[in-house]
Amino acid sequence: MPFIALSDSSSTVSPKKLLIICASNAVTYFDFLIYLFMADIISSTFFPANNDPTLAKIQALSLFIAGYITRPIGAILLSRYADVNGRRSALLISTSCIAITALLTACLPTYAQVGMLAPVLFLIARLFQGMAFGAHIPLGWVYIAEHVNKRNLATFLSFVTASFMLGELGSNLLFEILTSTHTQAELIESGWRIPFVWAALFSFVLLMLLQTINETPIFLNQKNKQHFVPKLVDLLPYFKRFNAIFLALMVAFIIASLTMVVALLLPELVAMRFSIDESMLNYSNNLGLLFLMIGCVFFGLIADRGGTGKALMIGAIALTIQAFAFFYHLENGDGSYILIMYAILGFCTGFIGLGSVILVQLFPTEVRVTAVSITYNFMYAIVGITLPFGLNYATQIVSFSPALYLIFVSLVTFLIGLYIYRLPKFKDLDQSIKL
User: Fold this and answer.
1) For helices 193-210 and 15-37, angle between their N-to-C axes, nearest 10 degrees
2) DSSP secondary structure string, 113-138?
3) Is 24 helix (H, G, I), strand (E, B) or coil?
4) CA-closest candidate to residue 284, choices 337, 335, 348, 342
5) How far is Cα 341 from Cα 52, in angstroms, rounded to an integer?
6) Which residue in 3, 96, 250, 266 is deepest, having the highest Cβ count within 10 Å?
7) Does 207 score more than 80 pLDDT?
8) Which of 317, 26, 364 is nearest to 168 (CA)?
9) Are 354 and 41 spatial neighbours (Cβ–Cβ below 8 Å)?
10) In a 10 Å sphere around its CB, with 0-12 CB exposed, 13-18 middle and 19+ buried, how is residue 263 labelled?
11) According to the model, what pLDDT value does residue 210 have?
12) Tens of pLDDT along 119-155?
């Protein structure tokens, strides 16, 4: 299966554009993940008090998962707009919606003020934010991919993917600052609004920066050649390429699974079965995020020099070994090496940055954002909704469950890498997909 050409050898992207797109991703991911770190506090603020810890946990997770439900809807609407009217304008719309929902959330009344109307309003804001966020990640990937020299595609896109981890690191650090400077009662009363105010402020600043970037040359060339706006029915032949759709879904599964487990769920899963100091675990998680960003760039450089398939296989083998070593250390040690084990695990997970390299080359310009967004968000919604509950339950039974899941995802990654490595046309990015 040949891959779609993205850019000619003369195309490039300025450091300014790359920084703005990376900042855009970091800020929007920061906005989206605030709900996760503030889940328990928000649950206490927007739901009636109860003494059942299980119900409280379900309420907290439900608010976070709600954002994943509408991501596919936003992906369909905004990504289609991006393929018809341009990537730049779609980025502006997405960022505007995220900024507005963050600001509105900061101003919402609590359960103590308006009763059950409070969680309803909060849920609506969360759902609209999920819609806006749905297309934002693929838009960032496509925007950079349609500017850069194809020989440096993996390197540039690795920076874009790493910026999401920067947003999560920012969310984590802000939450730690809030919990160290405010009591639980203060956070429930009004302190929970602080991160949403910051999120809105960052988003509006970002919105001004996005005004300074231009449209991608590939989209402009395609638009000039196209004499009519294709209807959705005209795009159906592209979606009948089941090999491309299946590959996109598998790549999205890998990205979603590793991001959810290593970057988001792992600290809680470790604390569930092992006696690790909470502050040390939080510090280890932050260090792991930092090394995950470094790993993204490392595997991007490897992919541009040795091939994406080969880099994926190397990353899959490394993650398999480290996932086993990580939990073996927890099972048979006292957690004294948790810092270095977390750092290595984060670094080995860095090959998730190569997923975007595959996704942006699977579909042609006129349907690229739509196809990437739908497949990516559809799979992310499934993983985001089921994995927190499933892995939480499995870890209560078998403490090694996170490692087993990581090894399974690594096996899928290795097979995908082998498939890409053996593709005869993969290195010839100037070839077009024949329908």
Assistant:
1) 160
2) HHTTHHHHHHHHHHHHHHHHHHTHHH
3) helix
4) 342
5) 35
6) 3
7) yes
8) 26
9) no
10) buried
11) 93
12) 889 888 888 888 888 889 899 999 999 988 888 899 9
Q: What is the pTM of this model?
A: 0.87
Q: Are 273 and 399 in contact (CB under 8 A)?
A: yes
Read off the tokens for 377.
Answer: 């968000």
CATH code for 15-224+237-421? Answer: 1.20.1250.20
Distances (CA, A) of 284 to 3, 67, 272, 280, 398: 39, 27, 16, 6, 23
Among left, alpha and beta (phi > 0; psi -120 to 50; other), residue 32 is alpha
pLDDT in the model for residue 258: 96
**Residue 316 to residues 161, 309, 358, 403, 415, Cα–Cα distance (Å):** 18, 11, 16, 13, 9
- The CA-atom distances, in angstroms, between 341 and each of 300, 312, 327, 331 are 22, 21, 9, 13
CB 288 within 8 A of CB 161: no
Please state, as a whole number, how many other Cβ atoms lie within 10 Å of the Cβ of residue 66.
19
Q: How many whole angstroms separate alpha carbon 145 and alpha carbon 361?
A: 9
pLDDT band at 77 (very low <50, low <70, confident <90, very high): confident
How do the domains of the chain map onto residue ranges?
15-224+237-421
Task: State the amino acid at position 8 in one-letter form.
Answer: D
Selection from 379, 393, 375, 381 nearest residue 65 by Cα: 381
- DSSP letter for 332, please: H
Percent pLDDT > 70 in the chain is 87
Spacing of C-alpha 327 from chain mean position: 25
Contact 38, 195 (CB under 8 A): yes
Hey, what amino acid is at 250? Answer: M
Question: Which amino acid appears at position 57 of this protein?
Answer: K
Distance of alpha carbon 136 from alpha carbon 207, whole angstroms: 13
CB neighbours of 268 closer than 8 A, spacing ≥ 6?
392
CA–CA separation, 74 and 70 (whole Å)? 6
Q: Residue 126 and residue 130: Cα distance in Å, rounded?
A: 6
Average pLDDT over residues 19-34: 90
